[in-house]
Amino acid sequence: MCYSFGILQRPTTFVTKDSDLKDVQNMLAVVAGLLVTITFAAGFTVPSGFDSSGSVVLGKQGAFIVFMLSDAYAMSCSTASLFSLIMVYKSKKPLKLTDRSVYVLYQSLYGTVVAFMPGVYVMVSHKSLWLAVVVCVICTFVPILASWGMLPSYLDKLAACKREWFPQSKDDNSVALVGVRAGQRSGSSSST
Asked: Is 142's pLDDT higher than 70?
């Protein structure tokens, strides 16, 4: 049925035949299991808590509704990914099914980030609107960079900045602090 709609006709993109499929599947299962756990917990430990009657305090606020919908989406996607990884062992095309579970896991990660933003907004906006907006803007960049395939190059640039700002010591592999080199204290020399 999916082939008639053209859903599963793209080639595998996340997992290659060269990769050790069992290790990839085990790693994906751990990530999917953790995502199921955190999204399940977030659904019951809602922002703002419950009132004396057991109802959600901010249940009718728009940001809270977005939080619940995106959390449910993230939990559903991570559960679907976990089920597909379990079904891999009986599948005739484990590479394709593993690839599809990675795609659904990406969707779960996007849903988790989207759930985080209105959750923070609901909790913080009444006291500090600017902080809530800044958190939402920062969280928006990660899914955009990941979906455009720019996240690896962005992380490489961050690593280059880290190496420039915190150079490695020649004596050992520990990072030298700014203003205090490894083996030196401020105001003292390295000779002992």
From this structure: yes
